[in-house]
Specification:
Layout lengths: L1 H7 L3 H22 L6 E7 L2 E7 H13 L9 H18 L1
Antiparallel strand pairs: 1-2
Helix pairs in contact: 1-4, 2-3, 2-4
Amino acid sequence: MTNKLKHQLTSKHAWLMYLARLKQTIGNYGITNGWTSIDNYRERKIDGKIVWSYNDWERIEDMYITIYNDKQHGFNCDKCYDELYDIECKYKEVTS
């Protein structure tokens, strides 16, 4: 599916539309299941306790802002497409 996503995201507008839709999907999940149920994209632990977290919605929001502001970004790679596809599938199945 990575190749399909890569071919769809060929312009700034396509990226912004895709990320806006993905943010909405994750937001709907958060409204339905509680915001704390959104998975963490990254987290830091000390002695097994989470002291910092960065959830999937925040990740997508930051990507959206970066692309919107025309900053150089490293999102055009297979790893990024795989991550986006995984995030999309995780929340799409639950909100469909």
